[in-house]
Design goal:
9 strands; 14% strand
Length: 325
């Protein structure tokens, strides 16, 4: 009888611990994963020190990213950035850190590959900051992706396959609000924690300049798609190659009130304009296509007529003749 009582007690404790034999293992964000304790304090960004080290603080001062950033990260560390009540995220214990799963991209991220996958390395940064958030793969079969969420907000990071680049995206349930290329996973973790703790887009842009200008953040926050599209093209803070080829024309068009009333968008490397600010785009407006020669363009009128190649000034003149006052 005592043996039976002892077995029953062990079974109850096992159920409470979520480790009954044969049951799927789920862990809360606060529970370390056996076999991955080495992640705590193990990951060290190869490109830059922690965002809170003296060297990083000095570096980020020079890039205009630290004043609001330290305040926002401090807020996260005082407990405002916590997962929503009752949320328990499953942890993928699968081995995604196999260099073969990384392919040629492994050479750009030896420090990340050493600890597993992108979500493992990002999780190490959250653990280092005392966060309860749990990073997980954004794409199950892609070790270069990671995501973390808190109720209606989420953050994701994608590691480029062609160079060492950490693309951070900050989302609401409906759309990406802010995005840019973070210097490393440590700074991406700081920005993600601030976003998940409820920081507003303008404050995020003030703290981390790689997310774009404050003006762009304000336009995104209030849902002004037309203004946000113009600012995104004009600033090109993400160094988009199509926007870079269009830059001489956009620099002039940006100051034309008639064009600013339209929504600019790119399709197949061509700049187009829409009367509506959201999809579906409408209006028989001219299109501007950059040629292989930098600063040269071919304009197609709203009726479909193709004009001769010209420079940015000439392209703007042709476009304005097609747009009513």
């Amino acid at each position: 009888m005592p043996h039976r009582l002892w077995s029953a007690a062990c079974t109850v404790l096992a159920v409470l611990a979520g480790s009954t034999p044969g049951s799927p293992r789920r862990r809360s964000r606060a529970t370390p994963v056996p076999g991955k304790e080495h992640l705590t304090g193990a990951y060290q960004p190869a490109m830059a020190p922690s965002a809170h080290s003296p060297a990083a603080i000095q570096a980020t001062h020079s890039h205009g990213q630290i004043v609001g950033g330290r305040r926002l990260v401090a807020a996260c560390r005082t407990g405002s950035a916590r997962p929503r009540a009752g949320y328990v995220a499953p942890v993928d214990d699968g081995a995604m850190g196999d260099p073969e799963s990384w392919g040629a991209a492994a050479r750009w991220y030896p420090d990340v590959v050493a600890v597993g996958a992108a979500h493992d390395a990002w999780q190490a940064e959250f653990v280092r900051r005392g966060s309860l958030f749990q990073a997980r793969p954004r794409e199950p079969a892609n070790p270069r992706t990671a995501t973390v969420d808190n109720d209606q907000r989420s953050a994701y990071v994608i590691l480029s396959a062609w160079e060492r680049k950490f693309t951070l995206g900050l989302r609401t349930e409906q759309r990406v609000v802010l995005g840019g290329h973070a210097p490393d996973l440590a700074i991406a973790a700081d920005a993600a924690l601030a976003w998940l703790s409820g920081a507003r887009p303008p404050a995020m842009a003030t703290a981390w300049s790689f997310l774009g200008s404050v003006a762009l953040a304000k336009a995104r926050e209030c849902g002004d798609q037309r203004e946000a599209s113009w600012l995104h093209l004009h600033e090109n803070h993400r160094a988009d190659p199509v926007a870079a080829r269009l830059q001489p024309f956009v620099a002039l068009a940006f100051h034309e009130p008639r064009l600013r009333r339209l929504r600019p968008y790119t399709s197949h490397g061509t700049l187009r304009f829409s009367t509506t600010s959201t999809w579906p785009y409408t209006g028989a407006h001219p299109a501007v296509a950059p040629t292989k020669t930098p600063g040269r363009y071919i304009v197609t009128t709203g009726s479909g007529r193709t004009c001769d190649e010209t420079d940015a000034v000439g392209a703007l003149r042709l476009v304005l003749t097609e747009v009513p006052d």
